Amino acid sequence: MVNVKTIILDVLKPHQPDGLVFATAVAEQTPGCRVSLSVLEVDEKTESISLRVEGDNISYEAIAAAITGMGATVHSIDEVEAVNVKASSEPG
Amino acid sequence: MVNVKTIILDVLKPHQPDGLVFATAVAEQTPGCRVSLSVLEVDEKTESISLRVEGDNISYEAIAAAITGMGATVHSIDEVEAVNVKASSEPG
Amino acid sequence: MVNVKTIILDVLKPHQPDGLVFATAVAEQTPGCRVSLSVLEVDEKTESISLRVEGDNISYEAIAAAITGMGATVHSIDEVEAVNVKASSEPG
Amino acid sequence: MVNVKTIILDVLKPHQPDGLVFATAVAEQTPGCRVSLSVLEVDEKTESISLRVEGDNISYEAIAAAITGMGATVHSIDEVEAVNVKASSEPG
Amino acid sequence: MVNVKTIILDVLKPHQPDGLVFATAVAEQTPGCRVSLSVLEVDEKTESISLRVEGDNISYEAIAAAITGMGATVHSIDEVEAVNVKASSEPG
Amino acid sequence: MVNVKTIILDVLKPHQPDGLVFATAVAEQTPGCRVSLSVLEVDEKTESISLRVEGDNISYEAIAAAITGMGATVHSIDEVEAVNVKASSEPG
Amino acid sequence: MVNVKTIILDVLKPHQPDGLVFATAVAEQTPGCRVSLSVLEVDEKTESISLRVEGDNISYEAIAAAITGMGATVHSIDEVEAVNVKASSEPG
Fold first, then answer.
1. What pLDDT score was predicted for residue E86?
2. Which residue(s) pair with G2 in the sheet?
3. Residue B37 falls in which region: left (phi positive, over 0), alpha (psi -120 to 50) or beta
4. What's the rounded Cα separation, in Å, for the pair B8 and B6?
5. Contact A20/B92, CB-based, under 8 Å?
6. Which helix (H) or strand (E) holds D73?
7. Predicted confidence pLDDT, tens digits, chain D (92 residues)
8. I need a surface site. Which of C61, D72, E78, G49 has the fewest CB within 10 A?
9. For chain F, how far is it from start to end, CA to CA, in angstroms?
10. Do G92 and F38 touch (CB under 8 A)?
11. Would the ipTM clear 0.90, i.e. be above it?
């Protein structure tokens, strides 16, 4: 079974809700996760942010829905880390 | 429950109160926190500082109130780290 | 016996399937492995990615088949780490 | 209670007393502290130094008095680290 | 007795055999070793690689023979680490 | 009591005695110390070196005397680390 | 007693003997030592190397003799680390 452990997204968001509310709303989508938000560039009405989500079995759909629900858009999936958890002892 | 662990703010402050008084006043808002203040740029009447607050359940409102109460303004929230603390064993 | 522990590939992929689906599909080829995907450059119809696979006895054939099965091509094998596991105590 | 743990000062000092005497005199102000002095720039009659003081409950007033008592001036407080020590178990 | 622990070679190789086969073949020369291959530059018919072999009592002759046996040439020995294992207590 | 733990000196020395003899002679001044000498620049008759002395209660006078006794001169004291060892439990 | 622990030499050597033979021959001079050789620059008939020898009570004379015995010359002693081993409890 493959477990997605880390996703880093490049996101364009309006200034409101602010980064604190934004990161908190994303973190609510994944129990046990850690969300790190860094502002990359600030424009008049928007800001580009890098959003790193680390956890277990991260659901991209849930995160993306939270992002678009706040008026922001996912520009790109920049990094993904996925781990194949050896469940049984079958050979590769 | 989402717990805000780190906030990094870009702040414009007058020279007085000095960085020591400023960092101490911010630290008083969050029991158990650690505040790191770095001066980024010094102008004639003001200075830009980066203010990093690490702790548990940091209240941005309390910090922002302390900052504006000393005549300074928050330019931007540069980084946020939020952790979703798994309270019960419900699936994500 | 030689055990391939790490392979880093330079891959050109279409935008779909996205990086999340792509990394997950590659991870499914090797029980116990860890796949890290980083986007290097985005063009109109394609994106260049670096794909790092770490594990035990990684099968390049299985990974390459998964990659080409998603419409992508391996540009180059950029790094390889191989370990010679001492099975018996024969001298080198 | 807020405990100042680190202060980094930008100081302009005459060549005498030398850096060794200077650092020692500053260290005498705070029991248990560690003082690191680095010369940044040397001019004809003065030198710019960075002075890092780490310890517990550092008194800026005592340090500043030692500095000015040796004919030097504090140009700026460059960094401050302050920790809010949780004394009782009251919630934040 | 001197034990060669690490050799880093600059090698020019044809595209075939690929890096995976190449690193595996080199690793077969030294029981217990770890081979890391990194591609430095790709040309039309050849590629420059850096080949790091770590292990115990590495035999350069065996490695070089494997390399030339695959149609590649050692450009230079870039780094060597050799350890003098104290066998008896004779003074240096 | 203040204990000088580290001194870094910028020294101009003639080519003879060589760096090995020089570092050894400086090390002889402080029991338990570690001396690191790095050549920064070589000129026709002299060389600039950085000399780092780490230890307990380093005596700058003894080190400087050894340096000048070998025909070299201390250009500047570049860094100093001094620790205030808490002897009794008196408050700061 | 002062113990030389590390010497880094800048050496000019002919292409033969190669770096492997060269590092091995140097390592033979000091029981328990570790020799690291890095090629810095390659010319038509010679190559510049950096040679790091780490050990206990390294004898520069023995190392230099081995180097010149292979037709190479020590350009400069670039770094030296010497430790003053506290033998008795006499004060500094």
1. 76
2. G84
3. beta
4. 7
5. no
6. strand D73-84
7. 899 999 999 999 999 999 999 999 999 998 999 999 999 999 999 999 999 999 999 999 999 999 999 999 999 999 999 999 976 544 44
8. C61
9. 13
10. no
11. no
CB contacts of C79 in chain E (<8 Å) are 19, 36-39
CATH architecture assignment, domain G2-84: 2-Layer Sandwich (3.30)
| Residue in B closest to D57 by C-alpha | B24
The 10s digit of each residue's pLDDT in B11-40 is 999 999 999 999 999 999 989 999 999 999
Boundaries of every domain in chain B? 2-84
* CB-CB under 8 Å, A42 with B86: no
Dist CA G33 CA G29 (whole Å):
9
pLDDT given for residue G1 in this prediction: 86
Which residues pair with residue E46 across a beta bridge?
A: E14
Tens-place pLDDT, residues F31-48 = 999 999 999 999 999 999
Burial of C56 (0-12, 13-18, 19+ CB in 10 A): middle
Q: Tell if the CB–CB gap between D20 and F79 is shorter than 8 Å.
A: no
Give the pLDDT score at F91.
47
> What does the alpha-carbon distance between residue D71 and residue B15 come to, in Å, rounded to a whole number?
23
Chain F residues contacting G, CB < 8 Å? Answer: 18-20, 22-24, 26-39, 42, 55-57, 59, 62
Task: Please calculate the CA angle E84-E85-E91 and round it to the nearest 5 degrees.
Answer: 80
- Residue reference for tokens 């695959």: E70
Q: CA E80: distance to chain centroid?
A: 10
- Chains adjacent to F (≥3 CB pairs closer than 8 angstroms): D, G
Chain segment E41-87, per-residue pLDDT in tens = 999 999 999 999 999 999 999 999 999 999 999 999 999 999 999 76
Inter-chain contact B80–A20, Cβ cutoff 8 Å?
Answer: yes
| Mean pLDDT confidence for A59-82 | 96
Other CB atoms closer than 10 Å to residue G69's CB: what's the count?
A: 9
Q: What is the pLDDT of residue D87?
A: 61
Interaxial angle between packed helices B19-27 and B60-69, expressed in degrees from 0 to 180 and rounded to the nearest 10: 150
Q: How far apart are CA C1 and CA E28, in angstroms?
A: 7
**Out of D27, D36, D57, whose CB is closest to F84?**
D27
Cβ contact A–E (≥3 pairs, < 8 Å):
no
Q: At what angle do helices G60-69 and G19-27 cross, to 10 degrees?
A: 150
Q: What is the 3-state secondary structure (H, E, C) of chain B?
A: CEEEEEEEEEEEEECCCCHHHHHHHHHCCCCCCEEEEEEEEECCCEEEEEEEEECCCCCHHHHHHHHHHCCCEEEEEEEEEEEECCCCCCCC
Helix (H, G, I), strand (E, B) or coil at F28: coil
Each residue's pLDDT tens digit, D15-35: 999 999 999 999 999 899 999
Give the per-residue pLDDT at C88: 53
| pLDDT tier for residue A90 given thresholds of 50, 70 and 90 | very low
* The pLDDT value given to residue E90: 46
